[in-house]
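hiii so um. not sure if this is the right channel but i have a protein structure encoded as tokens and i wanna go backwards to a sequence. like what aa goes where. can anyone help
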């Protein structure tokens, strides 16, 4: 155990010997008091860190990356790269975030500096990808930024200006233009798309312009570019590893290696736009809505060839929401909820006005519509007739299971409705929220709620309590549930319980809160939380935030993948189903818990699989820890406003 020179053990022993020599002159009480003071003096100094970093402008936040680079944001809106092992300052960039100063939230107040503005790329099959990060943010009015940076060297790989995108000034500062939602990294191709569309106000007739550039991530060089197409949202990678672009006026399938179109589909009239689009789960057919003459039309396009299969008029004032399924496309506007057949486009049926997320339940189970957070209604897909409806406050579709529709209510409780509309878990039989959850496999899920741990079979809907009573010391409530790959860990600031899928308790440990002002500082708990949320639940939230009839309804695609899986559970569900499920296991092997470590206040390093302490450090500091490397056991914390210390257990 290392101590600073000022509080070294040698100095402490010298003081103790001096005290012993004065025994004849000192009462027992005085001796005891002196010893306490000496020991307190030894303990008042923290362990020496592995390294120290000082920034002149001050430290605002840190972010540890998979490739052992510590990103540090400074108070002057600079970004710095630090070797997390040695503390060596690798690079600094003072201009990367400058425009973020102007960002404001929905309440009109400044958002402030946040590590969410930078996204480190990851590829489980290529660790070098994590040498790159994307800086991307916008206020949807004046501020818009998009930069790819090498976080090992600090070099800018690409941004719209470097890519030669045209400079446009409409309002606000002059900047190279790009479509914010359409420009980003494409993991399957290990490249970056920068795309833009705009009206050129400097030319007669204000012509509509578009441009797209594909940049190789490793070299930063433009692999190809075209002025024939663009995209309003990130292009879709097709099964044959090419790109599907959906633009305002041009949609196309593009050869990802050359940038040449296999086909294009243009709006009928250049003054109009594509206002809504969706594609079925297999990306075989896409459906477009546009104005044509004095009416709207829905067109079905074969996405492999670009062939227009059919076109049907649609009388509507506003752009409808299109939801594509393999059997057709559901068109929902301000008045109607209509199914157009996939083969002909003929209207198969029209139902009463409905609005909400549309989910095909598969087979003959019907089509579910979540309505205004009040109802879940299921229609017969052949007739449009209502099969059943459940009224539940705050209801949101959570995921499809083999036994029915799992849902959340206004309290975050989890229920299950079978495909006939019966409450399989309802009312008091719900898993009472709020819940923690983790999904170790496609067909089962672990929940923690209301002091109980449940194992849920997603194929038949059975739920069983496997841990009946979870009680933490200091009256703490669990706030993280993780799957390590071999066991489950339920934890809070000062407590951990490890258990297996049968509910056997593998360990239960408590570390007392420090008895100084640090006690209860939740900010000091640095834990790699690997709680795996259902993909469909995340997609639901994404669907809610899309807010555009133009964007594809990815939520329905996620439900489609689940539906296919559960329909195929009776037999071999195939490789594709496994590929779609990316159950991330806990990356970190350790938890770090603030407690009294004997020599003072510090952190214990706890193995999540065994629950045993495998290391500790003394900090004796009141500032919160900023970040950690839970895989390798490093801690990065801020002792002063301008410093970061790196500790290695």
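sure thing!! here u go:
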């Amino acid at each position: 155990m290392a101590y600073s020179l000022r509080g070294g053990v040698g100095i402490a022993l010298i003081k103790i010997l001096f005290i012993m020599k004065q025994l004849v002159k000192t009462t027992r009480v005085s001796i005891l008091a002196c010893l306490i003071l000496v020991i307190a003096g030894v303990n008042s100094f923290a362990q020496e860190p592995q390294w120290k970093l000082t920034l002149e402008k001050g430290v605002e936040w840190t972010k540890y990356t998979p490739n052992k680079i510590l990103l540090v944001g400074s108070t002057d809106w600079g970004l710095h790269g630090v070797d997390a092992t040695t503390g060596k300052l690798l690079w600094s960039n003072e201009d990367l975030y400058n425009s973020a100063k102007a960002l404001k939230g929905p309440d009109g107040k400044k958002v402030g500096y946040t590590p969410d503005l930078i996204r480190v790329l990851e590829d489980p099959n290529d660790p070098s990808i994590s040498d790159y990060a994307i800086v991307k943010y916008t206020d949807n009015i004046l501020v818009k930024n998009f930069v790819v940076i090498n976080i090992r060297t600090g070099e800018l790989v690409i941004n719209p200006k470097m890519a030669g995108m045209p400079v446009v000034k409409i309002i606000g500062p002059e900047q190279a233009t790009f479509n914010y939602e359409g420009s980003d990294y494409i993991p399957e191709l290990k490249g970056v798309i920068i795309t833009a569309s705009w009206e050129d106000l400097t030319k007669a007739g204000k012509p509509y312009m578009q441009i797209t550039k594909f940049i190789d991530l490793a070299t930063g060089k433009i692999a190809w570019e075209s002025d024939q197409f663009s995209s309003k949202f990130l292009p879709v990678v097709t099964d044959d590893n090419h790109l599907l672009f959906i633009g305002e006026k041009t949609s196309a399938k593009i050869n990802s290696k050359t940038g040449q179109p296999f086909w294009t589909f243009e709006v009928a009239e250049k003054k109009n736009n594509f206002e809504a689009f969706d594609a079925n789960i297999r990306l075989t057919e896409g459906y477009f809505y546009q104005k044509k003459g004095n009416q709207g039309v829905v067109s079905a396009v074969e996405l492999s060839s670009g062939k227009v299969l059919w076109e049907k008029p649609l009388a509507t004032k506003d752009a409808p929401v299109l939801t594509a399924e393999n059997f057709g496309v559901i068109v929902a506007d301000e008045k109607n909820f209509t199914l157009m057949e996939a083969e002909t486009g003929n209207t198969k049926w029209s139902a009463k006005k409905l609005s909400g997320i549309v989910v095909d339940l598969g087979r003959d189970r019907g089509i579910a519509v979540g309505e205004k957070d009040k109802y879940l209604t299921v229609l017969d897909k052949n007739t449009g007739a209502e099969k059943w409806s459940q009224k539940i406050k705050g209801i949101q579709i959570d995921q499809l299971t083999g036994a029915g529709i799992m849902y959340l209510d206004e309290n975050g409780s989890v229920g299950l409705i079978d495909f006939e509309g019966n409450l399989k878990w309802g009312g008091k039989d719900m898993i009472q929220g709020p819940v923690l959850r983790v999904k170790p496999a496609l067909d089962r899920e672990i929940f923690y709620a209301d002091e109980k741990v449940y194992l849920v079979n997603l194929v038949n809907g059975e739920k069983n309590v496997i841990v009946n009573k979870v009680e933490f010391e200091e009256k703490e409530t669990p706030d993280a549930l993780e799957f390590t790959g071999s066991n489950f860990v339920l934890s809070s600031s000062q407590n951990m319980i490890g258990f297996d899928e049968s509910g056997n308790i593998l360990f239960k440990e408590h570390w007392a809160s420090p008895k100084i002002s640090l006690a209860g500082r939740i900010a000091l708990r640095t834990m790699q939380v690997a709680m795996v949320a259902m993909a469909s639940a995340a997609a639901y939230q994404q669907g809610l935030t899309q807010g555009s009839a133009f964007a594809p309804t990815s939520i329905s695609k996620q439900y489609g993948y689940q539906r296919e899986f559960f329909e195929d559970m009776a037999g071999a569900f195939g490789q594709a189903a496994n590929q779609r499920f990316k159950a991330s296991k806990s990356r970190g092997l350790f938890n770090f818990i603030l407690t009294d470590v004997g020599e003072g206040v510090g952190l214990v390093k706890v193995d999540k699989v065994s629950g045993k302490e495998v290391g500790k450090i003394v900090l004796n500091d009141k500032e919160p820890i900023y970040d950690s490397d839970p895989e390798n056991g490093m801690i990065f914390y801020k002792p002063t406003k301008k410093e970061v210390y790196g500790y290695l257990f």
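oh and Confidence is low (pLDDT under 50) at residues 1-45, 516-552, 572-580, 582-586.
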